[in-house]
Specification:
Blueprint lengths: L7 H11 L10 H21 L46
Length: 95
């Protein structure tokens, strides 16, 4: 079994010989790009124009609501705050 080591230049020359001009996709790059743009534009237009309708269910049966008792909250009155105006501050005496 022989192992051949090729330089980079030899590899590129060998690859250039194997390439078929018909299989080169560089020439068709613009066409693929325009096809992609067309497909994306069509998808966006379809997404914006898509219509949906409300789906209603025709028969839900009889709806029975039980009477809910309302809790009666008594009215409260606010108490007057305690006034401390009659109190005096202690005086400081010097000794």
């Amino acid at each position: 079994m022989k192992i051949y080591y090729l330089s980079q230049l030899e590899k590129t020359q060998l690859m250039e010989l194997k390439k078929n001009p018909k299989s080169d996709l560089e020439n068709k790059k613009g066409m693929f790009f325009s096809i992609g743009l067309t497909v994306v534009l069509a998808a966006v237009l379809i997404a914006f124009e898509w219509k949906t309708y409300d789906q209603t269910i025709n028969s839900l049966g009889q709806l029975q609501l039980d009477d809910i008792e309302e809790e009666i909250i008594p009215i409260t009155q606010q108490e007057k705050p305690v006034s401390y105006t009659h109190l005096t501050l202690p005086t400081i005496c010097s000794v």
